[in-house]
Design brief:
Length: about 425
C-alpha cells in the first residue's frame, strides 16, 4: 500500500513538472484516474506462467459446473412455478347466499318419483324445488329415454298440461285475502301449508285424486321399464347449516316434522344407488378438487337412506392477476342407514346431504417469486458454488503437495 502511494506521489510530481513546462493537463489527469482504479482492483491478476493446473482441479471444476447446472435448473423451475399460500382467519361474512351445484344420476329411480328439498336451521325451506333444476329420464342402459325436462315431473295430465279446474276452484276453507281460488292440487296444498293445516287431507279432493292417479300411472310405467334419472342444476339457500336431499314422493312439513308422501307408490321399493358427477358449494376456482366428484355407490339393499355429512369451509381464492373468487371447499363423511327388518317405511329412502360451516375462512393467494429475487438467488448459487469449489481445490492441492513432500523425504511410512 505504501508503495502504491509512493507511485501516486511520483506521478503527481511528474504531473506538476509537466504543468510547469506547459504540457497538456488531460493526459496527466487520465494517468491519475488509471492509477487510482488499479489501486482499488479487488481481483489481482496472476501471470499465466505462475499458474498451475492439476487433474484434481479439473475434476473439481467439472463437479462444480454440474452442481451449478442442477441448482440453476431447480431455481428456474421454482421461479416459473406458481406457489399458493394459505392463511386462516375468522369468517366475518354475514347474510350471504349459498349456491349448491350438483349433477347426480340415479340409475334405478324414475324421474317421476324423484324430488329435491332444501332446508336450513334458520327455518327457510324449499320443498319440491323446481327452479334451475333439470331432469333427464334414462333408459335401463343409461341412455336418454326422453327430452330434457326443466322443473319437477309432476301435476301433468296425459297431454302434458297442468291439471287445472275451470273458473275459480275452491280452497276448501283455506282461502285468504290474497288467495281466493285454488285451481290445481299444488295451489290447494300451498293454501293448506299457509294455514298450517294437515296437507295430507287434500288427497281426498277430486283434483288431487286425479293427480295421484296420474303419478301412479307414470311411476308404474317408468318403474316397469327400469328407468333411471339424472338430475342436475343448482339451488340457492341461506349460508347457515342445513340439508338438502333427493327422495321419492311429495314433501310436507307438519309442525317440526318433515315427511314424504309415498302413498302413490303403494309400497314400492326404491334403490338409491347413485353416481355423483359433481357437487360444489359456490363457483369453483382453477384446480379445485371436490371430494365427492365421481363418487359411485351401488347399493344392494333397497329403501335405505344414504347420508353425507359435509363440513363446508369458506374460501377466498386470489389468482396471480389479482382476481378474487369467493367460494367454498368441503370435507365429507358418509353413512348408509338401512331399513330395519319388517319395517319397510321406517327410513325415508333417498340421498341426504347434511352440511355445516366452519367458523374459519381460508385465504388462498397464488403468486410467484419476483425477477429480482430470482436473480439474487442465481448469483448466490453461482458465487457460493465457485467459492466452495475454490476452497476444496485449495485443500486438495496443498494436501497433495504436503503428501508428495513427505514421500520425497521418506517420512511417509
Amino acid at each position: 500500500t505504501l508503495a502504491n502511494w509512493r507511485v501516486v506521489g511520483v506521478a503527481s510530481d511528474v504531473c506538476d513538472v509537466q504543468e510547469a513546462h506547459g504540457h497538456a493537463r488531460g493526459r496527466c489527469g487520465s494517468t491519475m484516474v488509471s492509477d487510482l482504479l488499479r489501486r482499488v482492483d479487488s481481483y489481482p491478476k496472476v501471470n499465466e506462467d505462475f499458474a498451475t493446473k492439476t487433474r484434481s482441479g479439473g475434476v473439481i471444476t467439472l463437479v462444480a459446473l454440474l452442481v451449478m447446472a442442477v441448482l440453476v435448473w431447480t431455481e428456474l423451475t421454482a421461479y416459473v412455478r406458481t406457489n399458493t399460500t394459505h392463511e386462516f382467519q375468522v369468517d366475518l361474512t354475514r347474510k350471504e347466499k349459498l349456491e349448491i351445484h350438483f349433477n347426480i344420476t340415479f340409475p334405478a329411480m324414475p324421474c317421476s318419483a324423484l324430488n329435491i328439498d332444501v332446508m336450513d336451521l334458520s327455518g327457510e325451506q324449499h320443498l319440491d324445488v323446481n327452479h334451475d333444476i333439470f331432469k333427464q329420464r334414462l333408459s335401463n342402459e343409461g341412455t336418454p329415454a326422453a327430452d330434457l325436462e326443466k322443473g319437477k315431473v309432476g301435476e301433468k295430465s296425459e297431454k302434458g298440461a297442468i291439471v287445472m279446474v275451470d273458473g275459480c276452484g275452491s280452497c276448501y276453507g283455506a282461502e285468504t285475502k290474497t288467495r281466493k281460488c285454488c285451481n290445481s292440487c299444488r295451489e290447494l296444498e300451498d293454501a293448506y301449508k299457509d294455514k298450517r293445516w294437515n296437507v295430507r287431507e287434500v288427497r281426498e279432493v277430486p283434483i288431487c285424486v286425479n293427480n295421484i292417479h296420474r303419478i301412479e300411472d307414470e311411476f308404474k310405467k317408468q318403474h316397469s321399464e327400469k328407468e333411471g334419472c339424472n338430475i342436475h342444476g343448482h339451488v340457492e339457500t341461506s349460508k347457515v347449516a342445513g340439508n338438502f336431499h333427493f327422495a321419492p314422493g311429495r314433501a310436507y312439513q307438519q309442525g317440526s316434522m318433515h315427511f314424504h308422501d309415498l302413498a302413490p307408490f303403494k309400497g314400492a321399493k326404491f334403490n338409491v344407488s347413485h353416481t355423483i358427477h359433481k357437487l360444489a358449494f359456490g363457483v369453483e376456482y382453477p384446480g379445485q378438487v371436490n371430494p365427492l366428484d365421481g363418487a359411485v355407490h351401488q347399493l344392494e339393499h333397497p329403501n335405505g337412506m344414504y347420508q353425507y355429512y359435509l363440513k363446508v369451509v369458506p374460501t377466498i381464492y386470489t389468482s396471480t392477476k389479482g382476481e378474487q373468487v369467493r367460494t367454498n371447499q368441503f370435507s365429507v363423511t358418509e353413512h348408509f342407514k338401512e331399513n330395519p327388518p319388517g319395517q319397510p317405511q321406517a327410513v325415508v329412502p333417498g340421498v341426504f346431504f347434511f352440511y355445516d360451516f366452519s367458523p374459519l375462512l381460508v385465504d388462498m393467494v397464488e403468486g410467484s417469486a419476483s425477477f429480482l429475487h430470482f436473480i439474487t438467488n442465481l448469483l448466490a448459487i453461482l458465487g457460493g458454488v465457485f467459492t466452495v469449489a475454490g476452497m476444496v481445490d485449495g485443500v486438495v492441492y496443498h494436501g497433495q503437495k504436503a503428501l508428495q513432500k513427505k514421500m520425497e523425504l521418506g517420512k511417509l511410512s
